[in-house]
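Fig. S4 source data, part A: sequence.
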Amino acid sequence: MRSCEECPRVYLLCWLKRLHESCGNASWSHIPLLLLKEVGGSFLFECNYDLKCLKVSIPIKFYKDVLHTWQTMKQHIPENKERILNETLWNNRFIKIEKFSVYYQSWNKVGLIRIKDIFGENNFLTFNDFCSRFTIKLISSHIMTYAA
């Protein structure tokens, strides 16, 4: 039997499961997914995020509580090279630009999802290899970000 302290967490996680399963088709899911659009919508829940590092404003306490609860359940420190390479690149609490984690929707859509996706043979992809592997409309700020 679960303790009374765990009950609110369980309810929040059950709600999150319903949100994920709705795929944005249920009318009640539109508001939370809209609030999370800038960080990938429900994709955020696949990420190793830190709520304080997300470039998103969540004005509703219930949604903040859901995000915080999931963060405490999902958050981890990858312990070896394989786990690091399999980390989600986006909204990653360890990958930041000016104190915020990063999410580029257009890059995510073309399959650039994991850290291993930006590596070739034990090195970062060259800019030319990156461009040939991913057909992305590059914005100058993204080019400078990748080059850095």
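Fig. S4 source data, part B ends here. The helical segments are 7-22, 30-35, 61-74, 81-85, 105-109, 127-133, 140-147.
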